[in-house]
């Protein structure tokens, strides 16, 4: 089974403010330094370590490809990693990366560049689920009560047992994801994640694999404190094993 991982990393990350990655001289969240390495590199390492992933495609802004290529060479990846030019949106970036995926690929896993704490067991589980069902995402049940509002007025309470907060990876059969992106392009549809594009096809039901509240998406400066804690715990576990 051939599994390609796509990591869209061309975003501007405006919510991160002026924090900078010394390696690149940029201020985007995927390049913020965590223990001396960009967040993107920490994320990439999880997929390099996954035995089910056979290749990785990272979508970057044109101006970031050269320096990240140098960083990647020093990392010494154990499987093919290709860098492609991303687009002005996540959807465009994933579509560009999808064009670079080998045609004989079975599954494609799309993962946020700024989720470096995906659990290896969860990563393997969502890939295996997609191999069976054709489409699977990682998600968690919200712990807070969710209200439906209009303006600033509550118009209902949504039952939490029927809701999930979608995370990544999101994994799909290659042909299914290609069709979903082509249909979205034809219709001018812009989704908030890859699953929303696949759902429109009404070909398969998207399965949900239980995620973790540790699989955080680093989007604002205050997330970095939690990220440092999680990384220190990961490193401690590695030393203990």
Describe the structure.
- The chain has 241 residues and is an alpha/beta fold.
- It has a single domain (3-240), classed as Spore Coat Polysaccharide Biosynthesis Protein SpsA, Chain A, CATH 3.90.550.
- The chain is built from seven helices and eleven strands.
- It has helices at residues 39-49, 62-75, 90-100, 120-133, 174-187, 194-199, 223-240; strands at residues 3-8, 33-34, 37-38, 55-60, 81-85, 107-110, 135-140, 146-150, 153-158, 165-173, 207-210.
Query: Could you say what the CATH architecture is?
Result: Alpha-Beta Complex
The ordered string of helix (H) and strand (E) elements is: EEEHEHEHEHEEEEHHEH
Number of strands: 11
Task: Quickly count the helices.
Answer: 7
CATH class: Alpha Beta
Please give the share of residues in helix.
25-40%
Overall pLDDT: 93
Largest sheet: 7 strands, mixed
- What is the distance, rounded to the nearest whole angstrom, between the alpha carbons of the first and last residues? 30 Å
Low-confidence stretches: 17-26
User: Judging from the principal axes of the Cα atoms, what is the shape?
Assistant: globular
The count of domains is 1
Strand order of the largest sheet: 5-4-1-6-10-7-11
């Amino acid at each position: 089974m051939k599994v390609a991982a796509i990591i869209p990393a061309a975003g501007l990350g405006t919510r991160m403010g002026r924090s900078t990655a010394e390696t690149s001289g940029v201020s985007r969240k995927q390049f913020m330094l965590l223990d001396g390495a960009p967040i993107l590199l920490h994320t990439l390492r999880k997929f390099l370590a996954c035995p089910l992933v056979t290749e990785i495609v990272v979508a970057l802004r044109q101006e970031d490809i050269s320096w990240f290529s140098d960083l990647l060479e020093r990392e010494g990846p154990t499987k093919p990693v290709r860098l492609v030019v991303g687009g002005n949106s996540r959807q465009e970036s994933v579509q560009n990366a999808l064009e670079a995926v080998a045609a004989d690929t079975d599954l494609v896993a799309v993962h946020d560049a700024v989720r470096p704490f995906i659990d290896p067991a969860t990563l393997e589980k969502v890939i295996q689920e997609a191999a069976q069902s054709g489409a699977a995402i990682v998600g968690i049940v919200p712990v807070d009560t969710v209200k439906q509002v209009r303006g600033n007025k509550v118009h209902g309470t949504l039952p939490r047992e029927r809701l999930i907060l979608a995370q990544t990876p999101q994994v799909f059969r290659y042909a299914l994801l290609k069709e979903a992106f082509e249909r979205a392009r034809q219709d001018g549809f812009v989704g908030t994640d890859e699953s929303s594009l696949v759902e429109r096809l009404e070909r398969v039901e998207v399965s949900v694999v239980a995620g973790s509240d540790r699989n955080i998406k680093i989007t604002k400066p205050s997330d970095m404190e939690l990220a440092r804690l999680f990384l220190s715990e990961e490193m401690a576990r590695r030393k203990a094993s």
